[in-house]
Amino acid sequence: MKKKKSDGLIGEQKNLDKDIRKTLSGNFLELENGTVHYQIGGSTEGEPIVLVPGFSAPMFIWDPTYNYLIKQGFRVLRYDLFGRGLSDRPKIKYTEELFDRQLHQLIEKLQFYKHNRKITVIGLSLGGIITVNFTDNHPEFVKRLVLIDPAGFPTGKKLIPGIMKIPFLNKIIFKYFGSKRLVSKLSNDFLHPEKFPQFIISYKEQMQYRGFLRAILSTMLKIDMESAQSTYERVGKTNIPILLIWGELDETIPYHVHQQVRDAIPQIEFYSIQKAKHLPHYEQSDQVNEILLKFLRKN
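Structure for Alpha/beta fold hydrolase, as requested:
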């Protein structure tokens, strides 16, 4: 039997198809650009909240937040971005428009909102850009916005090496070193990575499916992670309540960037989290969950 082509990417040995998905947990929904893996929990009468993940991690990155909010009576939706987790890896450009369309269509097709169509959107890292764009493009859906260590502003560090912008060469580099690089950087998102040994194991599961590295590379090249200031400013002029949470020791999107977000959205409610890096909701979940609940209850 002739072997299927693997896209030439190290570690990617399986296709995400209907047969594979029959063996996997979660729910799947067909959208315009492909099948999306998602999970909904909580009371059908609960207030709707959507959790949007970051640059490369699947929806499990929201485990502490998802489980907590369900216990507090909310209706919670989380999902894998295209190219990540168990969602399709369509062979298209991974742009802000793609992720905005994915979120919009997912909410509409699931009718994941109450009678007034209002939801709370919570975005982490790249998910910050996605949720701010969504709020800017579809304000009629958004009751509240929560940002956790969001991207979108200059960081003072080079996020993408110049060599990765060279066509063809970047694909070769990513083919042989992309997987190792992504996994090695995960530890930098935690102050104490040794406390979360399952995290990397869970992260690596998505890497066995063809198209993962292609999607990550396209996202790197097609989304400017430092140029969303004008979008933040427009959202800041609305009357939507907005919460900002940041790990004080974040090295991925440095803590000092929080001031740029606060300048763009002067009325934003801000909390810094000590003893946490890029994933404060995961590393200091009790503290962040308490802040979230207080914000949700009073707005």
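Residues 56 and 109 are 24 Å apart (CA to CA).
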